[in-house]
Structures are given as structure tokens and as C-alpha cells.
Amino acid sequence: MYQLICRRCGRIEDVDRAVGETTCLGADDGSGFRIDEAEVTYWGLCPACAADRDASHRSTAQL
Ligand SMILES: [Zn+2]
């Protein structure tokens, strides 16, 4: 489970599958934990806010 959270408007998107090939379920390293779910949260800007930000701060640094 991945969550994308917009810092600006608070919009939350749940993503069931990994974006790209990164997976965090490889932690079966002898700790004894049987991991059945990993949740990763990405903070950033949703498309609408990113577009709005781009429009108003066209040449400033990225997040
Ligand atoms: Zn947003």
C-alpha cells in the first residue's frame, strides 16, 4: 500500500501497487516478523496543486 499525500490541499491517494519497482516487503531478514503489508507515504503535490504551483512559481526550486 502506498499513500500519496498532497502537502497543499491534503488530498490523499491510495495506491495498491508499487509505483515503479520499489518494494519494501523484503525485510524478512531474520527479525522474526512476518510482514504482510508495508505502507509507504509519499508527500508532495497532487497534479492540480503542482500545476497551480508551476503556474505561480514558474522558476523557483522544486519541492
Ligand atoms: Zn493538492
Key descriptive features of the protein:
63 residues; alpha+beta; elongated; binds zinc ion; 3-stranded mixed β-sheet; Dna Ligase, domain 1
Bound molecules: zinc ion
Q: Which architecture would the CATH scheme give at its second level?
A: 2-Layer Sandwich
Counting DSSP H or I runs of 4 or more residues, the number of helices is 1
Determine the CATH topology. Dna Ligase, domain 1
Rounded to an integer in angstroms, the radius of gyration calculated over CA atoms is: 16 Å
Please give the CATH class: Alpha Beta
What does this structure look like?
It is a single chain. The protein has 63 residues and is α+β, with helices and mostly antiparallel strands. It has one domain (2-25, 33-56): 2-Layer Sandwich (Dna Ligase, domain 1). The chain contains one helix and three strands. It has a three-stranded mixed β-sheet, with no helix packed on it. A hairpin with a 5-residue loop joins strand 1 (2-6) and strand 2 (12-15). The mean pLDDT is 79. Zinc ion binds at residues 6, 8-9, 11, 45-46, 48-49.
Give a brief rundown of this model.
With about 60 residues, this protein is an alpha+beta fold. It has a single domain, classed as Dna Ligase, domain 1 (2-Layer Sandwich), CATH 3.30.1490. The chain is built from 1 helix and 3 strands, in the order βββα.
Secondary structure elements and pairings:
Layout: E1 2-6, E2 12-15, E3 40-44, H1 47-56
Parallel strand pairs: 1-3
Antiparallel strand pairs: 1-2
The protein binds zinc ion (ZN).
The site of zinc ion has 8 residues, from helix 1.
